[in-house]
Amino acid sequence: MAGYSDRDAVIVGAVRTPVGKGKPSGALHDVLPADLLAHSLREVVTRTGVDPTEVEDVIAGAVTQVGDQAVNIARNALLGAGFPESVPGTTVDRQCGSSQQAISFAAQGVLAGAYDVVIAAGVESMSRVPMGSSVLPGSNPFGTGMTQRYPEGLVAQGISAELIAARWNLSRTELDEFSAESHQKAARATKDGLFDAELAPIAGLATDEIVRPDTTVETLAGLRPAFYNEAIGARFPQIGWEITPGNSSPLSDGSAAVMITSGAAARRLGLTPLARIHTTVAVGSDPLYMLTGVIPATEKVLSRAGLDLSDIDLFEVNEAFAPVVLAWAKELGAPASADLLARTNINGGAIAIGHPLGASGARIMTTLVNALQQRDGRYALQTMCEGGGMANATIIERL
Asked: Is 96 an active-site residue?
C-alpha cells in the first residue's frame, strides 16, 4: 500500500443505497429524490464520525433536474440530512458521469487547497423523474449550431449501442453472455456479503433489487430488440438489432456519497483513508458513437498517471450497454481482452445492479473502493460513457 501526503485528496468514506427498480412498483419509488440523497449524505458523516460542520461543500450529480429533482437537489438534500445551514451544495450534470465528475471536482478542490473536507454524491429517481422529462415539447436543447454541424441528426443511446456492436463485430450471443455473467457476479457478491460494508438500507430495501440470480443466456435470448426502427435501419444498414432490455442497464433509483478530504484533514480528524484520488480526466468523443468515450478516457488517464493497463488491479466500466464494455476491452486489451475483462466489474455491473444515472459514478466508486480493499489491490480505474459523446476516467490508489 502507498502512503499519502497532507495535500493528497483521499477517500475516507463511501456509502450507497441499494439500487431499486426505476418503476412505480420499485421499492424506492415512494422516497423523494432529495430524501434519497439525504440518506446517503447522513450515512457518510455518521459512518466516518465527521461532524457535518467540517463539510465545506456538497457536490452532487443529477441528470434529470426537473420536478422532484429540480432546484439544486444537493442543497435541499444536505439540509434535509440535518447538515448546518452554513454548508453549501451544488448540482452538476455530465450526463451518466455526473457524480463521477462530482468526485473529480471535489478532488480538484482539495488538491487546489480550496477544500479540506468535501462530499461528492449523486442521485437519480428514474421512477419519479423519467429520463428525458426535462426536455419540454417543442424545445430544442441542441441549438442551431449543433443541428447544422450534424445535419443528418444524432441518435438515441440505444442506437449508438447498436452501432458499436456492429462496428466491433459483437454478436447477440456475446452480449447476452456478458450480461448473464454480470447478474451472476452481482448475485454472488450479494450472497457473499461483499456489498454489505457499502450499503445503507432504506425503505425496507437492504440489497440491490434488480439483480436476477437465475438469469441465463437462454432466458436473455428470448428478448426482442429494444430499439428497432425501420428508418434508422435504412440509414444504418450495418445494424444487426442486437440490443435488448437484457443486455442494457435498467431504469433505476438510488443515491451514493463519497467523502473526500485532504491528507492533513484526515490526520487531524483521526480518519483512515481508503484510497487517494490518483488521476482524473474527462474527454469528448464522437456524439454519434457517443458511448465509446471510455476508450480514449482510459488511454488518457493511464498516460497522465504514468501507468499501463497491466498496473491496474481492478477496472469498473459502466455497463450502460453490454457492447460498451466489450468494445472497450477489444480495443484496449487485444489480443488479451479476456484478461482485461477478468479484472473488470468483478462484482457485477450496471446491467445487473442498475444505473441510477446521476448516482452511478459515486455508486461505482463506492463499490470499487471496497472491492480494492477486499482484493488487496493497489490501483483501480473507473470510467463511464456519457450522453453527447463524453467520458470520465479516474484512477485511485489504495492506502
From this structure: yes
